[in-house]
Amino acid sequence: MRVKVNGETHELWTLWREGSEVKMIDQRLLPHRFMILTLYSHQETAEAIRDMVVRGAGAIGVAGGYGVAQAALEAQGKNQKTFKAYVSEAADTLRATRPTAVNLFHAIDKCEKAASKGSVPERVAATCAEADRLAQEDLEASKKMGEYGNALIKDGFRVLTHCNAGALAFIDNGSALAPIRVAHRSGKHIFVYADETRPRSQGAKLTAWELQQEGIPYALIVDNAAGHYMRLGEVDFVVVGADRIAANGDTANKIGTYEKAVLAKENGIPFYVAAPRMTFDLKCPNGDGIEIEERSPDEVNWVWGADENGKYSKVRISADGTVAKNPSFDVTPAKYITGFITDVGVLRPPYRRSIREALHTRKGSVG
Question: Catalytic residues, which ones?
């Protein structure tokens, strides 16, 4: 990911591990301030996931794996029984941070399994190796999604996206923004409409920032403007990310995604979901089985921002005593989805079959 800091351009990952420390970009401060946090324990990593220092299904999954690796390193002086109990408790702490993104649970399960065999030193080494492997897998998946998705984007396309599914939501490149990055770097003339994505405003704070860093032409729009531009014929392609995809293709993503999918279908616009295979959950038969995270009403009643002097402040935008509901995600039924851009190709209906086949594909293209 290209990041300009103090006039200099750097290539950075969203998060990485250095021994027992986890480093990550503090996404709560963007776009006004750029800061890298150092997390010294699995408890601090869990808190960072919960507080959305890091967010996005891919990045959350990697952070969860790193958290288990930290726990293994913290317990390396214990006997096998105590080591297992410590890592198991740490895994439960990490699982409890965000309930919707399935990547988190997959990564934790894999790292916890790696910590279950051999001597304590062997378990520590295996856990750290598995966490690092998952990070590399995330990186490679984002590259592949960029390549497969780029083939769907024509020169001159005007693309709409919702929330942030960019490099900040992965190790690098992203899911929904990966095809946009590749299209732009290949010389295609594209334009991006970035939904602001209330109440956390990830589109305004993160997606717009990433597009600006890359020099990709874009406009930030309020969430309710997407249908307006679709009706005017000014949107050619919609691509979003996902936090969990059920076995039938029903997809959970940031609140407001469902509305965009329905509008896209009504206006004859292709609607794609970009996600690696780790985001698919065959244990969940359909969208009704996806737990929807309900976050604090304060996120709706209050907003954070910086004034002209760069000073952060919290401002209430509703009357005192206002009752607010704040579902963080919604479910888009599979019938509204044109295709899934994955790390093994573009999946087409019928989704039960194409998803099942994709999850058993190691390389090459499907669909």
Answer: 243
